[in-house]
Structure prediction request, 189 residues.
Amino acid sequence: MNQERFLLVVSGPSGVGKDTVVRRLRALHGEVKFSVSATTRAPREGEQDGVDYYFLTKEEFERSIAENALVEHACYCENYYGTLRSELELRMERGEPVVLVIEVEGAGNIKRLYPGCTTVFILPPSIEALRERLTGRGTESADVIERRLKRADEEMALAPSYDFNVVNHTPDQCAEEIYAILRRRMDEA
Ligand code: 5GP
Prediction:
């Protein structure tokens, strides 16, 4: 489907600064809409239901799976995360650019479902920078950090399978590079 070119999938290891990059992308290019995912993880301080995520109980999430309301879902560090059909399909049909910020398993599933989408993997300037960011964030307990570090290594190994890799030197540079990729794709006839 030609509409798939309006879909951009962004992944990157925990701690790479995805949230900040996404915030900059939103601020710089308001026309780009982000799909709000469903999750069973508890909200972090400042996160709002319906804005950052739809925060669901495990039962609610499993009901969404059963009702086919999710395009994909994955288990990440013992919580469910999933992309809602309602967030995606209408926007694509309308020809509105939509960005999914999801982990690698979900990204692979989306690419299989919508082969015409574009996938971008955000890389840290170095592995050391990633580790420092993840340990210094202060939002997660030690065992959660450990699990996320292990997962980060596994995720980084998949970077070459993405259409594009973008290094996050600064949030603005990274956001603009991602925007340029989306723009080029959308301008294709
Ligand atoms: P966090 O708990 O840090 O917000 O997110 C953990 C991971 O889950 C991140 O890599 C994030 O991109 C990913 N994630 C967020 N929403 C979804 C989703 O709808 N589907 C999948 N597969 N992963 C998601």
